[in-house]
């Protein structure tokens, strides 16, 4: 990865204007507007709202909010933060 955060495969898809077909990739999302790549989503859009994230992942805003809340709770309880 270069400083822009993209992988070479992401750059190739963007350069060729083709969607990624590697559904087995852990970075793949079913969102053709961003070439099916979460790295391209972040690169192209920067910070996104929870609603935009939900649209890309195919889940509701409420579910994304639940995930965010639980994640922040876990981070706050992390022993690494207490050092």
Notes on the structure:
With 83 residues, this protein is mainly α. The chain folds into two domains: 1-47, no CATH class; 48-83. The chain has four helices and no strands. Helix 3 (50-57) crosses helix 4 (61-77). It starts with 7 loop residues before the first helix and ends in a 6-residue tail after the last helix.
What is the H-and-E element order? HHHH
Structural class: mainly alpha
In what range is the share of β-strand residues? under 5%
General shape: globular
Number of helices: 4
Rg from C-alpha positions? 15 Å
Return the average pLDDT rounded to an integer: 92
Helical fraction: 40-55%
Query: Main beta sheet, described?
Result: none
Termini Cα gap: 31 Å
Q: How many separate domains make up the residues? A: 2
Query: Which spans have pLDDT < 50 for at least 5 consecutive residues?
Result: none
The count of DSSP E runs of length 2 or more, i.e. the number of strands, is: 0
Task: Provide key terms for this protein.
83 residues; mainly alpha; 2 domains; 4 helices; 0% strand; globular
Q: What is the secondary structure topology, with strand pairs?
A:
Blueprint: H1 8-16, H2 38-45, H3 50-57, H4 61-77
Helix pairs in contact: 3-4
